[in-house]
């Protein structure tokens, strides 16, 4: 793998990790388009580990929230402690399902066909949700709705259950947790923030798991330099993507992501039919 390919992977990971478009799907498609022939286990581990850059981007952008949770652990900020508990509750379903089903998911669902169909279905769900909100006379954007401070443990667990659906490649963890947050009454702004914060735990756990499991194989195949470059590029692109999306959703709906998902899903199926990707 050359430096350009590492940079491309880092950009794709960072730009798509927190948008509701599936970073896993984009990475699988990118690897196929670039015809990367390295060890599948090492390549998967690299893709997961460079998402550490995306985690750092959210840590820097949402540092005040993270600080309140640290203060909560110290016993000086009850609201921060409540948020931390809710995030842990929301993480638990994915942790359980991941431990029980990860190997089956990788064996049967980690392929480009699954990604393409998931993109299209997810796009349809987004468009249907936006249309439903419009019929209800509700805003598809902005801060109308409950704040993150009002989230109850039961609602947090509901978001966590919906996050499990995103284990199907192409679905998008961000999509399911954002829709889950709005489903339980959070405003778009609060649902997006909760999704980002939940990603710190979920993605952090996945990074540690894959680094422990296949880290040595990854470093043998690619070296520390590739990991470092991919992580830095991922951080920069994720920082830009998060800043853009938060600003965009203040005035616009999620519909653009629905149309994008449907378009890329159709294009991917066309490429598959011609044997240009696998």
From TrEMBL:
<dbReference type="InterPro" id="IPR003824">
    <property type="entry name" value="UppP"/>
</dbReference>
<protein>
    <recommendedName>
        <fullName>Undecaprenyl-diphosphatase</fullName>
        <ecNumber>3.6.1.27</ecNumber>
    </recommendedName>
</protein>
<keyword id="KW-0133">Cell shape</keyword>
<feature type="transmembrane region" description="Helical">
    <location>
        <begin position="226"/>
        <end position="246"/>
    </location>
</feature>
<feature type="transmembrane region" description="Helical">
    <location>
        <begin position="258"/>
        <end position="277"/>
    </location>
</feature>
<keyword id="KW-1003">Cell membrane</keyword>
<keyword id="KW-0573">Peptidoglycan synthesis</keyword>
<feature type="transmembrane region" description="Helical">
    <location>
        <begin position="42"/>
        <end position="63"/>
    </location>
</feature>
<keyword id="KW-0472">Membrane</keyword>
<comment type="function">
    <text>Catalyzes the dephosphorylation of undecaprenyl diphosphate (UPP). Confers resistance to bacitracin.</text>
</comment>
<keyword id="KW-1133">Transmembrane helix</keyword>
<keyword id="KW-0961">Cell wall biogenesis/degradation</keyword>
<comment type="similarity">
    <text>Belongs to the UppP family.</text>
</comment>
<dbReference type="Pfam" id="PF02673">
    <property type="entry name" value="BacA"/>
</dbReference>
<keyword id="KW-0046">Antibiotic resistance</keyword>
<keyword id="KW-0378">Hydrolase</keyword>
<feature type="transmembrane region" description="Helical">
    <location>
        <begin position="117"/>
        <end position="134"/>
    </location>
</feature>
<feature type="transmembrane region" description="Helical">
    <location>
        <begin position="83"/>
        <end position="105"/>
    </location>
</feature>
<keyword id="KW-0812">Transmembrane</keyword>
<feature type="transmembrane region" description="Helical">
    <location>
        <begin position="183"/>
        <end position="206"/>
    </location>
</feature>
């Amino acid at each position: 793998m050359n430096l350009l390919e590492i940079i491309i992977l880092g950009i794709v990971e960072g730009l798509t990790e927190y948008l509701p478009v599936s970073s896993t799907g984009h990475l699988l498609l990118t690897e196929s388009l670039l015809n990367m022939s390295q060890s599948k286990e090492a390549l998967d581990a690299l893709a997961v580990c460079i998402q550490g850059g995306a985690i750092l981007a959210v840590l820097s952008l949402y540092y005040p929230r993270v600080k309140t949770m640290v203060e909560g652990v110290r016993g000086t900020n009850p609201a921060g402690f409540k948020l931390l508990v809710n995030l842990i509750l929301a993480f638990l379903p994915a942790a359980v399902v991941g431990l029980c089903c990860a190997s089956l998911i990788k064996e049967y669902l980690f392929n480009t066909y699954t990604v393409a169909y998931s993109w299209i279905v997810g796009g349809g769900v987004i468009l249907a949700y936006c249309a439903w909100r419009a019929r209800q006379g509700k805003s598809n954007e902005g801060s109308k709705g409950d704040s993150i401070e009002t989230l109850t443990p039961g609602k947090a667990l509901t978001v966590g259950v919906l996050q499990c659906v995103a284990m199907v490649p192409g679905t998008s963890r961000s999509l399911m947790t954002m829709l889950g947050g709005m489903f339980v009454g959070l405003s778009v702004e609060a649902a997006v923030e909760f999704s980002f914060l939940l990603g710190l735990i979920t993605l952090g756990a996945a990074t540690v798991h894959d680094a422990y499991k296949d880290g040595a194989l990854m470093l043998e195949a690619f070296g520390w330099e590739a990991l470092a470059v991919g992580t830095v590029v991922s951080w920069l692109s994720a920082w830009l993507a998060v800043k853009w999306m938060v600003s965009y959703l203040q005035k616009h709906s999620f519909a653009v992501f629905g149309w994008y998902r449907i378009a890329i899903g159709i294009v991917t199926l066309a490429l598959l039919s011609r044997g240009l990707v696998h």
